[in-house]
Amino acid sequence: MARKAAIIGGGVIGGGWAARFLLNGWNVSVFDPDPEAARKIGEVLANARAALPALSDIPMVAEGVLTMADTITEAVEGAEYIQESVSERLELKHRVFAQIQQSCPDALIGSSTSGFKPSELQQNAANPAMIFVAHPFNPVYLLPLAEVVPSPASDLAAIERAKEILREIGMFPLHVRKEIDAHIADRFLEAVWREALWLVKDGIATTEEIDEAIRMGFGLRWGQMGLFETYRVAGGEAGMKHFMAQFGPCLQWPWTKLTDVPEFTDELVDLIAGQSDAQSGAYSIRELERIRDGNLVGFLRALKDRNWGAGKVLREHDERRRVAYTDGTRDVAAAPMVLAHLQVLPSWIDYNGHMTESRYLFASSEVSDAFLRFIGADMDYVASGFSYYTAESHIMHKGEAKLGDRLTGSVQVLAADEKRLHIFVRIQKDGADVATIEQMLLHVDMKAGRTVAAPAAILDRLMPVAKAHAVLPRDASVGRFTGQRK
Fold this sequence. Notes:
- The chain is an alpha/beta fold.
- It is built from 16 helices and 14 strands.
- Helix content is 42%, strand content 19%.
- Strand 2, helix 2 and strand 3 (66-68) form a beta-alpha-beta unit.
- It is globular.
């Protein structure tokens, strides 16, 4: 039976939370009095469905059921986890918590607040110990960070349960040990924001120039190494002490206006809004969201390949779900495993305007590599001296893929034993085959240069899939030879 989460407030953040839970198999009930809430959440969910599966090398679980509740009481009934994402007004949050705890006094209640301390949220609550900060970052369905902030009044066992739930839906719960206004990350963002306002107000830079300074420079470093690790590298072989000795005194220089705030006038608002329109007004918000999500998927996939930063969280989430498939607690579905989500890029196009032949093989390898990772034959396994080698491939082109098309790749295990793995890969667009690839792979001792039996750790993951897939019908093209008539 699916678990249930309740989301109170269905804006951008609340919608992101709903998508995160839904795509990880939870049923979700949302309350928001805005008559446009269902439409807005639907648009966020559409973005999430297009982006989040592309981060996974494990088949996605069945999506949960979304319901729009008419009242808070209806929304939270039976919920294991509740996330409050209403406007940043303390009195409103207090009213919401009071209504929630009338029905569910002992339920976990996380707040998406970006600024309030948990002790402020807990004021006058029926059960303050169950209210805590769980501050995410937009888009919630892609970015893993959730700042989890308890207060001295919090139930620490409840906090640990909340952190485990967040891990289960692929997030990284950062436990902030001491409550403070704006937690950790937003304090940095506020400092950068204030300095940016001064730069625009004083005519030093435009909004676009500031954005270019971030995305062409330190933003790329921060996204994969953070602040202190970046500066450690900057210190060279002498490390952090050298960096601080060299640059620490600069903090005494009047470089910034971070301790001062520019007057927030209509003129400043108009100046920034006008420059922002000139910079990005050619795109709708939905177009910018899709551009953002596509870029984030690319960054996160690169980090995942290197098991670094946020990519490490993605790997750990995959491993959790992989275990669920292979530990006997759930049946392996008798259905092809969808393992890759791709989009046709400009470099994939040939002179005919179609996806070039080599990219069909690339797409197939993305699917087969994902399956090998699923059964444990990943890069660590290859480093141990063993791997699966492709001995034979037969590709059939059945349709056309053009620039921008979104493709999915699935694998069906036709047969498997200790040494051999026979698979059938489908590359599809909108549910129709674009190409199929039949492959025979052999398990190899790379040092000896010969086939050997795969170990039990691999076979224990592979054979349940082979057994489940044995009942599936085989495509008519299985076993074809080149040139065979249909």
